[in-house]
Amino acid sequence: VSLRVHPDRAEPADKERSTRHFQILGKVYAVLSDEEQRTLYDQQGIVDEESTVLTQDCNWEEYWRLLFKKITVKNIKDFEKKYKHSTEELEDVKSAYEDFKGDMDKIMESVLCVDYTDEPRIRQIIQHAIDSGELPSYKSFVNESKRKINARKRKVCLTDDKFY
Fold this sequence. Notes:
Blueprint: H1 2-5, H2 15-33, H3 35-44, H4 60-67, H5 73-83, H6 87-99, H7 104-110, H8 119-131, H9 139-142, H10 146-159
């Protein structure tokens, strides 16, 4: 629920309404997570507006964990396994290609779960879509120099502190 009403995810025209809904959701959580307030609400159906529960700092980590489970390395690896070679990845690659007008530096930075070892596969996806007429042919992709490709690889090697 909080994701649907979170102000950061709302359209500009709906931001004010989303902010109000998100604040209400926070108050609901504050009441339901406080034993005294919840008992009062369960017994009488009212909320004590004067209560400090609604204004005091609450345990935001606990609140966050109610909304979202903790993410582990295993979760990330599992996501990566499902995402790579999926329809979702295919669509993301195509969107990135169009958004960045074929700039492979930006494409490789924006597509989830890819590194320089995935570049040949990503290039193949894009080239296939160009050949089939699904994507336009951008000069920055078609005529990318070996120098730029190698610079991208060197940049990754240096930032990863690894030697490939």
